[in-house]
Every structure is written in C-alpha cells, then in structure tokens.
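Input sequence (244 aa), recorded before submission:
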Amino acid sequence: MSNATGTATIRPEEAAHFGRLAAEWWDPKGSSAMLHKLNPVRLAFLREAIDSHFGSDPKTLRPLAGKVALDVGCGAGLLAEPLARMGAGVTAVDAAEENITAAKAHAAAGGLAIDYRHGELAALGLGQFDLVTSMEVIEHVADKAAFIAGLVARVAEDGLLVLSTPNRTTASRLLLVGAAEGFGMVPKGTHHWEDFITPLELSDLLADAGFAMGNPKGISWSPLKGLHLSDDLALNYIVTAKRA
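Predicted structure, token format:
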C-alpha cells in the first residue's frame, strides 16, 4: 500500500509469501487455520464498534446497509465477505494478486458482489468509505506511517477505522512467532517480531495522521476459551480510531 506521495508500503517478499498461501485461504484446517479462528473474535469486536459508532440496532443483521466499507490487506476475503453480508458495499484491496483471484472466485460462488482490487492503495484511485478495516496487516508493511496515512485518507468525515495487529512483547515473540510457527499453527515466515507495533506506537502514528485511537481490546488465547476478547494486550489487540 502507499500514501498520497507515492511511498511504497508493499513489501514484495511479504506479498509473495501470502500469495503462495492463497489456494488454502478458505480451508479452515489449512495454512490459514489461525485466521479462521481469529475471524469470529474480530467480528464480535467489529460489530459492537459498528453499532456504537453508527447507532445501528444490535439486533439487525445488516447494520451497514446503505454504507460503503473498505478492507485493506483483505487476503482472500475472510472479513470482506461478512462486511458484505452486513449490508455494506464492499471494496477490498490486497498486495498479492493470487489472493484477489481466490477472493473473487469465493465471493462469486457465494453470490456476493465485492469490488476486489490488487495493488498499492494510493494508486487505485478509491474514494472515501464509512468504514475502513485493516486486520493483521500493518505488521507486514514497509512504512507504517505511510500506510496509516493511506488508510486515514480513505475514511469519510464521520467514518470509522478498525485495526488489529500483534503487540511487540516477550509473550508475542514466544507464542506468535516461536510456538505458533514452530508447531506449524502458522506458516513459517509469516511473522517478523521486530515489525510488530505496540498500542502506544500505533496511537502515536494515528495521532500524527489526525486520528484518535480508542481503547484497545486484547485478543488472547486460553485452553478453556480458545481465542477471545480480553483486557490482556500481550499477544494481539484490536482497536477503533476516528478523526480527532
């Protein structure tokens, strides 16, 4: 992805890594199994954030009806498809062309009209959106400030931005990189711990771009609950942001 000045944020090697996984993206037992487990947790947070920000009825199935949403770093559509089912007109962007090919095929099979695009965000000439999401992406980009600038430029005046990412902690180094990749729960090479971003660093980047970050919610794991929302930010966190 890139910002308006053209700073490249896509790392070719990262795009290639995820492109190689595209064929298995929708297999809940394949290389993206962890994302399938993570997705319902992210969606629970996202639904509450949507209802709170837009004043939608928590009981309605289509809280985004009449709104437009953008998912940046969409992979093969794990989040873009639920956004479409929530009623949004969805545009979704990814750095790996293989992911977009897989995403288009899966959406077509499900009868979902999603506008999938491949390439740098700033180069795609997109407008502004009521909701912009980017889940587990910022830790993979080359220039985090440029990436955030590109995201906030796509958020409409009264819109909402939602991000999730691993935290850079001792726990995440041991569990997300060491154990998860070591035991094959996540493909080797997926995570680079030094590129993880702390909530304070993310808050500062958003503030520099004119956005105020909400209170982050942790995504934790336990043997009893599996992946779940919690107040523990040590592994992974998800957060909203809007114009300050």
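Checked by second reader. Strands lie at 68-72, 89-94, 115-118, 129-135, 155-166, 211-213, 217-222, 226-230, 236-243.
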